[in-house]
Amino acid sequence: MSNDAKPMWARLGAATGVALLLVAYPLLFPGALNVGVTLVLFAALAYAWDVLGGWAGQLSLGHAALVGLGAYTFGLLTQSPAWARFGAEGIGLALAATAAVAAVATLLWGWIAFRLRGPYFTLSTIAVAEILRLVATNERRWTGGAEGLFLANLPPVAGLDPFDRTVEYYAALVLLGAAMAGAWWLSRSRFGYYLQAIREDEDAAMALGIAPLRYKLQAFALSGVATALGGALYAVFLSFFEPHGVFDIGLSIQIALVAIIGGTGTLFGPLIGSAVLVLSAEFFRASFREANLLIYGILIVLVVRFAPQGIVGTLGGLERRWRARHERDAAAHPAVEGLERGLRGASRPS
């Protein structure tokens, strides 16, 4: 087996082990399903954010707007008396409508906001999330206002209760699997290479014939649809939500941090970031009570300080350096042996 094949098989084995662990999680930890749903759902949301923030390099701190848009679209449709006539099929139709609304919203949002770059684009995403939060808070007739929206009932789908935590876990796992498949496709497709070119130097990419606005809009639409679907699952998980929760900038920052700490633009970074942040938050909350946010903040600062490329990016860099050093040593070894043989030959008596 070649040296290049060994890391590939090691990664494949690790990925298979992680996949089996995720599938078997409800059987292994039946008393910790809330943590499992949170971990998987936030990993899926981080993958969705990473399409725009990691692969395309457009830092968004307003993705909570898409979470809230998905939660309210799905919640208002499924709780509508007119929608009840669709029965179980109504849930699938509501998810399709949620995806369509998110796609249209992100295309309009991006068409306006992508005229801005860098921190100005980031500020515009925060502004849009705040506008939607204020609209949801003040339009009581449609959204319930600050009192929020309660998902009182949802019809069973194929005999499964949507409010069952195990069902919610596997629904979130399906979304996570689709998001990881999307990240894998981005790492190998021409579309993904175009996004990376735009991220590294937008002007140079434009000079090479790449249309940045077109590809950023497509990336934003993909990211928005996946985030809105995650918002719909988040609404079912919470059962009750309000504008200050689902449109909050704190939620946007949390989603972005999961991707950044795990490693943006990588296949496993958001999943690892979600595992680190969600599990550490649960551990610190149980162990340090009121001081848990302080410890949580210190952990984030340490990771950002010593692993600025994220956990996966930093480990990848260490692996590349180790392999380069190993190859240099292997290349230098025959030369050293030849030198030693030459010295031994010169020291023999004639």
From TrEMBL:
The keyword Protein biosynthesis does not apply. It is found in: Cell membrane. Its main location: membrane. It holds the Pfam family BPD_transp_2. InterPro entries: ABC_transp_permease (IPR001851), LivM-like (IPR043428). PANTHER family: HIGH-AFFINITY BRANCHED-CHAIN AMINO ACID TRANSPORT PROTEIN BRAE, HIGH-AFFINITY BRANCHED-CHAIN AMINO ACID TRANSPORT SYSTEM PERMEASE. This is Branched-chain amino acid ABC transporter permease. It comes from Carboxydichorda subterranea. The lineage of its organism: Bacteria, Bacillati, Bacillota, Limnochordia, Limnochordales.
